[in-house]
């Protein structure tokens, strides 16, 4: 808004002098207005004032001028700038004429090399998630590319334009490095004509590691202005090289895929043979009969794009595909392709797999896909949609006798909304407020009132800390560590990468993770402090049927996500020997045990190498980690996390998910083995129930 700044206009108090408004323009078109030396009376400051001073965003700053967000700099740089400002003999700047065009604020560069942005972001400033750049197109809900109501608006991917020198990255080489590290036995399993649980597990693990690694490598190139889709890149590489399970399309059960399994990307459904199209909601197959070849539906994805009705857990009203054309607009749906296949399956009576897409509460722009089992089509009809055009409707009923899947999610939602009371609750919050989220204590198996008494503590306690092996002043990333800042010492210790994506997922399987710590200047929400933020999932300590107390989550957990750390009291080796042979050693974490490697990436999952042995007792004081049971096929692994601390060795044990974990599935990790067995130490019978159970642990 431009004003007449003459002195003759006097505006009565409480009123607006509209005559002073000469013109209204968008803010981006305005240019600064400077006092004229020849006519000081026209200035808003007729008595004269400080002349206009142009200062670089990173300094040096003259007296009375301070940096502003996002151009914060480190204290050392600020002190140097002030010294330079005091010694410099700078003449008073003079205005040389009007500025021709305003410069957008996001064209300046912050001291750590990143481009500033005036865009509001609920995450830590300057951070771009590995999925934010494609969140809006992650699931377009276009079941066949033309579905009515299913195509969501595809926004252009967000990202920073490359400026200055950028790191050249070779994504194909990064992918080949991952593939070359895979255990050769895995490929033998994947070559089997019929899939298996191992084949499905291996496929999904390879996809997740490759997707996260490609996102990590691509991020440091700074050139992320284009579509940043490591999920598609990883999926295409695996499809091209034949790294998948159940490549043959089939009707009914898919070997190795269990009811209740969850997926976070449509490509995962394709790679395991559950649902082939990456976008279409109806998958079908040609079936030869004695007379002709007909198409039959094999699977559908109901993700909320159409006017589907899935309130009843055992009945689904599914809308057909089609009815919208980009050029011609809305129209009646036609009995063709997927719609025809569903109609044929109605008369044939074959089973159809149903995958339900639910909102991912942790990442609102994405979805969680839940395999809900086999359904049969019972009826079909045509009705008017909200658009006024005819759509096909299909009624599907769930085949009886299958394990619960979608209904588990619905029950949790009812507990959350408090429309239904969770049965068997002993304590609503076992932590007594010590954690960010309550952890309920539940027993719906017997009459036991709870575990033995202990003091809940969310943190590790070391009464005899040791000096760090090497001194470190930490990082000076006052705005948070950035993936493109190659000078950050914390990034350098992690091999040149941030160990986490901005969504908090572990990027690869490094044996040791170096996090920022007390010696660092980065804020608490820094991307390299993931294990220090407390619980992020609604956990539940529950009574198992044959393993005592266990731990599970109400929320779905993505592969590579931090769950919790092992809290308790750090003890020495002498006290560990005191617990040998007793049940008390169930609450001892011993980093010197032999821990099995992951079968897929044996070279990348070697036993973690830590500076010194670490023993933690959670018998008298601990957190939820003390309730995690052993399994020979675990879904959780641990990693040592070393935090930057110049005063003492700041070592922690953090737990991360190995694969996607559905709600209400028990969280387990492998306790490892003590070799050689000490005198008097006995093997303990294992009750994990895994197909690969070793029968014991010790």
From TrEMBL:
Q: Where is the composition biased (Acidic residues)?
A: 129-146
Q: Where is the SET domain?
A: 537-672
**Polar residues compositional bias: what residue ranges?**
1-12
Which SUPFAM superfamilies does the record match to this protein? PUA domain-like, SET domain
Which compartments is it annotated to reside in?
Answer: Chromosome, Centromere; Nucleus
Query: InterPro entries recorded for this chain?
Result: H3-K9-MeTrfase_plant, H3K9_HMTase_SUVAR3-9, Post-SET_dom, Pre-SET_dom, PUA-like_sf, SET_dom, SET_dom_sf, SRA-YDG_sf
Q: What ranges does the record list as Low complexity composition bias? A: 85-94
Keyword list (alphabetical) reads: Centromere, Chromatin regulator, Chromosome, Methyltransferase, Nucleus, S-adenosyl-L-methionine, Transferase
Instruction: Give the residue range of the signal peptide.
Output: none
Residue intervals of the Post-SET domain = 682-698
What positions does the domain YDG occupy? 252-398
Entry keyword annotation includes Membrane: no
Q: Where is the composition biased (Basic residues)?
A: 152-161
Task: Please indicate if the UniProt record lists Transferase as a keyword.
Answer: yes
Q: From the UniProt entry, list the residue stretches annotated as the region Disordered.
A: 1-21, 79-166
Pre-SET domain segment(s): 473-534
Task: One Pfam family, please name it.
Answer: SET
Q: What protein name does the entry list?
A: Histone-lysine N-methyltransferase, H3 lysine-9 specific SUVH1
Give the originating organism.
Answer: Stylosanthes scabra
